[in-house]
Specification:
Order of helices and strands: HHH
Largest sheet: none
Distance between the termini: 141 Å
Shape: rod-shaped
Oligomer: single chain
Radius of gyration: 53 Å
Helix content: over 70%
Number of helices: 3
Structural class: mainly alpha
Length: 159
């Protein structure tokens, strides 16, 4: 019924706006529209529609409020989730950066430690060689010092 009424109203407006017949066609159409509007069946339908709207409006309004509240809650939850995900992602990236930095620093320190260890080893070898040379220089010429021989078996060389 609503569709028919809307169609008739639309057709009437279109006819009035498009008619070239002038005022007479307009008045005729206006009279017909008034007759249709004032028809008891149409007025009864309008009254029924108004009553239905009055009855259903609070229900529809409540449902709309509930839907809006639910939508707002979901949007808020999603927003918090996105914020948390962003924070986690940011933290993960920072941890990765810090880890890479720490690894680089550890590699540098390891390389330096190896260099220092090599220097200490060289220095220790030189000191050991010097001490060995001093001992060898102080040892009597007739003593044979062979590491493969037990020190108790060594003695003065016999010719």
């Amino acid at each position: 019924m609503k569709t028919r009424l809307a169609f008739v109203a639309g057709a009437g407006v279109g006819y009035v706006l498009g008619a070239r017949a002038g005022r007479g066609s307009y008045e005729k159409l206006k009279t017909q529209a008034n007759n249709v509007w004032n028809d008891p069946k149409v007025q009864e339908t309008v009254k029924t529609a108004q009553e239905t709207i009055s009855e259903k409006a609070p229900i529809v309004a409540d449902k709309a409020k509930e839907a809006a509240a639910t939508g707002a809650e979901k949007a808020k939850a999603k927003t918090e989730e996105v914020k948390e995900n962003r924070a986690e992602t940011k933290a993960e990236k920072q941890v990765e950066k810090d880890l890479a930095k720490a690894e680089k620093q550890a590699d540098k320190e390891l390389a330096q430690a190896k260099k220092d260890a090599a220097k200490v080893e060289k220095k220790a070898e030189k000191q050991a060689d010097k001490k060995a040379q001093k001992i060898a220089d102080k040892a009597p010429a007739d003593v044979v010092s062979d590491p493969a021989v037990d020190p108790n078996d060594e003695g003065p060389a016999t010719a």
